[in-house]
Amino acid sequence: MNLSPTGLLHLLVVYIVWSSTYLAFRVGVGPGGGWEPFLMGAARFIPAALILLGYAYARRQRLWLSREEFATLCFTGLMMWVGGNGLILIAAQYAPSNYQALMIAASPIWANAFEALLDRKRPAPLLIYGLLIGLVGIGVLSVPKLAQPTPTSLLSFFLLLVSPICWSAGSVITQRRPFVLDAVVVSGYQQLFGGIGFLLIAPLLGEHGSSPSLAGWGALVYLIAAGSLLAYTSYILAVRLLPLSIVMTYAYVNPVLTAFLGWLLLGEQLTGWTLAGAALVLIGVAGVFQSRAKR
């Protein structure tokens, strides 16, 4: 299989770091965090974007955008961050970190569906089997939560169903409209547009001010440094260097790592369902990689 080693290294960063961001979401907007969801999003993405663009300016990277680049980066930034990440932040008020990651694991299904639709081409059977096995694994992982529904769990379910659709659509567009821009610049502008979107929408949702605790501030700093500056830039580079079906496997690996991190750090329950689902998830990821190898 001819896959870029650099791309795989960036994908590994995405695997590990983004698994931990679900815990930071839960700490920041959950009980005791003190952040309101969209204000936290604005407080995360605008500073992160300014740091990235400042770094790009210091390296004399092109920052000026053509009209087409502006429109594409604005649209994908809003789709991926406000639609994709913003809905997770709202759901994180009610759902544990492992359940957030479980639902977002549908991203590869939506990404491959969008690609097949745009290409008017049916995905390879092994790829379909790999994705479906991974999806079954996610279902197994989520059985304990779905077996005990509550009003807030229904809201969380809906938000976490729509979120990966928005993220996948933005990812497909980002890959299919390659920019003559450095990855840091692309990452910076997408997060800047997303952060502005958060800031404008927050008052419409009744968010007028947050009073974050020390833990809430710690979660924000971690999301800026690890989630935005490091992992998202690695994600953009991985999307450039690897097939999208390979990159999107992060959404299958993240729930497994998040479940274990949630158990280790936040005391979230780890059961036999978790272990069985994790095994199926890894088998599904292996099927996706094997499909690419045969192609």
From TrEMBL:
<feature type="transmembrane region" description="Helical">
    <location>
        <begin position="98"/>
        <end position="114"/>
    </location>
</feature>
<feature type="transmembrane region" description="Helical">
    <location>
        <begin position="214"/>
        <end position="232"/>
    </location>
</feature>
<dbReference type="Pfam" id="PF00892">
    <property type="entry name" value="EamA"/>
</dbReference>
<feature type="transmembrane region" description="Helical">
    <location>
        <begin position="244"/>
        <end position="266"/>
    </location>
</feature>
<comment type="similarity">
    <text>Belongs to the EamA transporter family.</text>
</comment>
<feature type="domain" description="EamA">
    <location>
        <begin position="6"/>
        <end position="142"/>
    </location>
</feature>
<keyword id="KW-0812">Transmembrane</keyword>
<keyword id="KW-0472">Membrane</keyword>
<feature type="transmembrane region" description="Helical">
    <location>
        <begin position="37"/>
        <end position="58"/>
    </location>
</feature>
<feature type="domain" description="EamA">
    <location>
        <begin position="157"/>
        <end position="289"/>
    </location>
</feature>
<feature type="transmembrane region" description="Helical">
    <location>
        <begin position="153"/>
        <end position="173"/>
    </location>
</feature>
<feature type="transmembrane region" description="Helical">
    <location>
        <begin position="272"/>
        <end position="289"/>
    </location>
</feature>
<dbReference type="InterPro" id="IPR050638">
    <property type="entry name" value="AA-Vitamin_Transporters"/>
</dbReference>
<dbReference type="GO" id="GO:0016020">
    <property type="term" value="C:membrane"/>
</dbReference>
<feature type="transmembrane region" description="Helical">
    <location>
        <begin position="70"/>
        <end position="92"/>
    </location>
</feature>
<feature type="transmembrane region" description="Helical">
    <location>
        <begin position="7"/>
        <end position="25"/>
    </location>
</feature>
<protein>
    <recommendedName>
        <fullName>EamA domain-containing protein</fullName>
    </recommendedName>
</protein>
<keyword id="KW-1133">Transmembrane helix</keyword>
<dbReference type="InterPro" id="IPR037185">
    <property type="entry name" value="EmrE-like"/>
</dbReference>
<feature type="transmembrane region" description="Helical">
    <location>
        <begin position="180"/>
        <end position="202"/>
    </location>
</feature>
<dbReference type="InterPro" id="IPR000620">
    <property type="entry name" value="EamA_dom"/>
</dbReference>
<feature type="transmembrane region" description="Helical">
    <location>
        <begin position="126"/>
        <end position="147"/>
    </location>
</feature>
